[in-house]
Amino acid sequence: MPITEVEGHRFKITHLDRVLWPLTGTTKAEMLHYYATVGAVLLPHTRGRQVSFVRTPDGVEGQRFFQKRPPAGTPEWVTVVETVRNSGETMEQVQVNDLATLIWAGNLSCVEIHTHQWLADAPGTADRLVLDLDPGPGRTVVDCCEVALLLRDRLAEDGITSWAKTSGSKGLHLLAGVRGASPRAASDYARAVARELESRHPTTVISRMTRADRTGRVFIDWSQNAARKTTAAPYTVRARETPTVSAPVSWREVAAVRRPEQLTFTIDDVPGRVAADGDLMAGLLDPGNAGTLPG
């Protein structure tokens, strides 16, 4: 059983030839190589935040589960912190703060990485605003891009600068840095903006949770800002049919999209994008770009 050393930490790497994506024949080794390659741009978006994982030990067509607590056998060098749940009980969660932890988690087939919109040392303060655009039946990510541009401009009216990334599935995520906001305030603001856009564009946008009403519209999911919710991290792989990535995209790309495949990126595509453009979401990490929510 191979032993690897990453940043001074030694651990076992197992089943490198295991196929995690049968449709493309993509193996665990290829996924680990991807995470090692993009770690420099991924880690700033996960560092200091509790994470949850989507694990697919038998591949994406087999059993999968959402893991919030530290996996059994978590090494002592992995950062584990406590979080207080709504019930008042505490729960330990992992932080992916370094490359060693990223590769260790990948070896456990933790394919997806999800983060909260707040830092572990400030759980009552949201520093991220997220709006999840999900195309209803009859709509695609192309329609999400049109709504994203509307949202970008609406947020800018309140001094909120936003960045976009693919969800790695069917839709698009908008993220913005905010300061001094509670998760409740962030949720209320996101809901108000979503409702406002629905009122302006009722045939295109919906903000209500009712799935039956989403046909032919783009759903703006504002609820991801709740303290208990998590969202796919930038650059995480997704446990879909193929190894797609939740990849940051430029506003120029968003405006130019005409076909859904133009915003479909896999682990084969993203390293080249990073090499050419760096982190297209780097501005989100600059505290100077954080806005203050109105009200």
TrEMBL record:
- GO MF annotation, one: DNA ligase (ATP) activity
Does Lipoprotein show up as a keyword for this record? no
Q: What's in the keyword line of the UniProt record? A: Ligase
**CDD domains found in the cross-reference section:** MtLigD_Pol_like
**What EC number(s) does this enzyme carry?**
6.5.1.1
Domain of life assignment: Bacteria
Give one Pfam family, short name only: LigD_Prim-Pol
**InterPro entries (UniProt xref):** LigD_pol_dom (IPR014145), MtLigD_Pol-like (IPR033649), NHEJ_LigD (IPR052171)
List, for all copies, the residue spans of the domain called DNA ligase D polymerase: 27-280
**Protein name, per record:** Non-homologous end-joining DNA ligase
- Taxonomic lineage from the root: Bacteria, Bacillati, Actinomycetota, Actinomycetes, Kitasatosporales
